[in-house]
Amino acid sequence: MTSPTTDYPGVAALVHKHLGKIPFTASKHSTDAVIHIDAGHFLELVTGMHDRRELAFDYLRNVTGIDLGEEGLRCVYHFYSFKHGHAIQVDVQTPPDNPHIPTLTGIYAAADWHEREAAEMLGLVFDGHPNLKNLLLDEDVRIHPLLKAHPLQKMELEQGIEDTSAGFKF
What percent of the chain is predicted at pLDDT more than 90? Predict the structure, then answer.
């Protein structure tokens, strides 16, 4: 799955140099190199990115969940190294019938609320998370409002930005 280091953009080549036994692919985004990895190798990759002094990704900037419809769910992580001043994005794709990703709460405390929000809004499951209770919705609410398959999604779109009667120009 991996190819020679020279095929990787920017800091992804450095990650491949030090963690080359972990299978991933890489591409270039407008701001960062992007690593694409299966959920089964995700925790090993992130642990190495955090622990290897040559990489030292000590800061988890953000976690975002994305609904890709029939393709499944994706979770996008943004990491930064204060020591080296480099950044990288890691994308984890899950199949439609198995939206499981290992939690990063044991490595980054900031993963706690980010993962809780993605679980609540999209239905991603972060295996090993110590407390996946809702952040924004009532605790007994079991819907995932940001899923494209959410039953109110079409109605919300029809009532949303297309509605100019409130005087807002979108």
Answer: 66
